[in-house]
Design goal:
Strands 3-2-1-4-5-6-7 form a seven-stranded parallel sheet, sandwiched between helices. 41% of the residues lie in helices and 14% in strands. It is an alpha/beta fold. 39% of the residues are buried. It has one domain: Rossmann fold (3-Layer(aba) Sandwich).
Length: 267
């Protein structure tokens, strides 16, 4: 798997942000890339990148899509799952439909896509499963992200359990836990400035392209979990030792950082 040339890579949630950056980088590394997403890429993808309309909450559609890819490409070497829906409002403010949609896309979709590609990978005796989680799976310091944090905690548990289940096979599992990500529509579409604590002003952000580099690197590595940027591991350790202290630090003021644009700041 060190040479990505002609490797068939399926990026679920690849029209925007981290998924799009990953698809682009894989293509540059000469992989055969299929981008699967319910939304169309804007701007359009390069012509050599295949786009497949896919609703991950529809199991029948997922199964049909995976069979189609396998029939056309002959194999599926890599699954990258980064589909997600974010609606950062308190539990009281969110509708049942909104919360369930977050859980279904983040958890159910991950299960269904994995179950669809796994028999193919086992039969071909080769494969990589890569999941995009978040540092918020282990550090609960921001208001309004209960459903999002629940999805990412489930992603961690799923990836770690899969590693054990697939230990005697040639299938490798990687889990990517980004910290603060700048340069996407994530904050612009779903997050208000008031929920971002000043503590974030003292932590570095990362970008979709840097996370994509980590994702591509993980394809060539053994089962691992990556935290991007690595300094967030220190915050994670601090939270494990004293959650109340870290939460107290996050109560002070509103984030002033300028590399993050939130939904309430759009003209």
């Amino acid at each position: 798997m060190n040479d990505l040339q002609d490797q068939v890579c399926l990026v679920v949630g690849g029209s925007h942000g981290i998924g799009r950056a990953s698809a682009t980088l894989l293509h540059q590394r000469r992989a055969r890339v299929i981008v699967a997403d319910i939304s169309s890429p804007v701007p359009p993808l390069e012509p050599s990148l295949k786009h497949l309309h896919l609703d991950v909450t529809d199991q029948r559609s997922v199964d049909q899509a995976i069979r189609q890819i396998h029939r056309e490409e002959g194999r599926i070497d890599v699954l990258i799952y980064c589909a997600m829906r974010a609606d950062w409002r308190s539990v009281q403010q969110q509708s049942d439909e909104a919360m369930l949609a977050t859980l279904r896309i983040g958890i159910e979709g991950m299960f269904v896509c994995t179950r669809a590609v796994l028999p193919i990978m086992l039969k071909q005796d080769c494969g990589r499963l890569v999941y995009v989680s978040s540092i918020l799976s282990t550090i609960r310091v921001l208001r309004g992200c209960a459903a999002y944090a629940a999805v990412k905690a489930a992603t961690d548990a799923w990836a770690e359990s899969l590693k054990m289940d697939l230990r005697d096979t040639s299938i490798e599992v990687s889990n990517i836990r980004p910290g603060l990500v700048a340069g996407t529509d994530f904050f612009r579409n779903g997050v208000s400035r008031e929920v971002l604590p000043r503590l974030l002003d003292y932590l570095p952000s990362t970008t979709p392209s840097r996370i994509a580099e980590t994702i591509v690197r993980s394809i060539s590595s053994s089962n691992r979990t990556y935290i991007v940027p690595p300094i967030y591991r220190i915050l994670e350790i601090g939270y494990r030792l004293s959650p109340s202290l870290v939460r107290w630090l996050c109560r002070w003021g509103v984030s002033r950082r300028t590399d993050i644009q939130c939904k309430d700041e759009l003209a």
